[in-house]
């Protein structure tokens, strides 16, 4: 399904997820359009992080399907995608730049372009002077920004961020929110899980979860 501008949307159709014998998500139907970020809200344990994994293609649903531009997502010749994990998900012992570069290297992007993109992405989150530092030496907020830079560097058509501002001060929160808004405005799908009012204020729509179900139709 595409928006009026022609940019494709992300669709979740009758998505159920069972983990460890428990149904974590049930009957999720939503269309996430590009253009502005879409927020995921809900109490702790409502399924926000699991929905992030499913929407990013990192976790396959037990039932139902996820589609992008009307096609299975992820699929062959997969659309570029980025995921910001609440736990950062960085590789210890590597530098900030090396962590940002990894997903692009896996995609076979030329080395020179990888290095340029990694540097630009880290600069955009205010870490341009820390590209060569090991992530083990960085603060929690700095590691969170490395994770955001890693997701943005690949210019993903689908970007999913789980609590991307949780460890950031006011200035860096504003910086990151501006980046997410700009990325969506370029015709990309951006999903953000958060209960921070400042984050939700930049979202054009909300998916409110309650016990693994959508409390409000998307």
Shape estimate: globular
Give the biggest beta sheet. Answer: 6 strands, mixed
Topology order in helix (H) and strand (E) letters = EEEHEEEHHHEHEHEE
| Count of strand segments | 10
Distance between the termini: 15 Å
What does the average pLDDT come to? 91
Percentage of residues in DSSP E strands = 25-35%
Structural class category? alpha/beta
Give the proportion of residues in helices. Answer: 25-40%
Unreliable runs, pLDDT <50, ≥5 residues? 1-5
Q: How is the secondary structure organized here?
A:
Elements: E1 10-19, E2 22-32, E3 38-41, H1 48-56, E4 63-68, E5 71-72, E6 81-84, H2 96-106, H3 111-124, H4 140-153, E7 158-162, H5 170-185, E8 189-193, H6 197-200, E9 205-210, E10 213-214
Parallel strand pairs: 3-8, 3-9, 6-7, 7-8
Antiparallel strand pairs: 1-2, 1-4, 4-5, 9-10
Core attributes:
218 residues, alpha/beta, six-stranded mixed sheet, 6 helices, globular, disordered N terminus
Describe this structure in words.
The chain has 218 residues and is an alpha/beta fold. It starts with 9 loop residues before the first strand and ends with a strand. The strands form two sheets. A six-stranded mixed beta sheet has the order 6-7-8-3-9-10, with helices on both faces. It has a four-stranded antiparallel beta sheet with strand order 2-1-4-5, with helices on one face. The N terminus is likely disordered. The radius of gyration is 17 Å and the shape is globular. The relative contact order is 0.21. A hairpin with a 2-residue loop joins strand 9 and strand 10. Helices cover 31% and strands 25% of the residues. The protein has six helices and ten strands; from the N terminus they run βββαβββαααβαβαββ.
């Amino acid at each position: 399904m595409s928006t009026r501008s022609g940019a494709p949307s992300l669709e979740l159709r009758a998505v159920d997820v069972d983990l460890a014998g428990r149904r974590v998500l049930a009957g999720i139907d939503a269309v996430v359009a590009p253009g502005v970020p879409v927020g995921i809200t809900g109490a702790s344990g409502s399924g926000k992080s699991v929905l992030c994994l499913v929407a990013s293609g990192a976790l396959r649903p037990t039932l139902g399907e996820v589609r992008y531009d009307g096609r299975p997502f992820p699929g062959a010749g997969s659309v570029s995608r980025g995921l910001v994990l609440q736990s950062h998900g960085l590789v210890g012992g590597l530098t900030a730049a090396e962590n940002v570069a990894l997903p692009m290297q896996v995609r076979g992007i030329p080395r020179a372009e990888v290095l340029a993109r990694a540097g630009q992405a880290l600069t955009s989150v205010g870490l341009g002077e820390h590209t060569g530092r090991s992530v083990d030496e960085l603060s929690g907020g700095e590691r969170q920004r490395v994770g955001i830079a890693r997701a943005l560097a690949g210019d993903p058509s689908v970007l999913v961020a789980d609590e991307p501002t949780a460890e950031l001060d006011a200035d860096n929160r504003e910086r990151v929110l501006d980046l997410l808004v700009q990325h969506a405005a370029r015709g990309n799908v951006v999903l953000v899980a958060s209960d921070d009012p400042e984050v939700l204020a930049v979202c054009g729509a909300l998916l409110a979860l309650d016990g693994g179900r959508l409390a409000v139709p998307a």
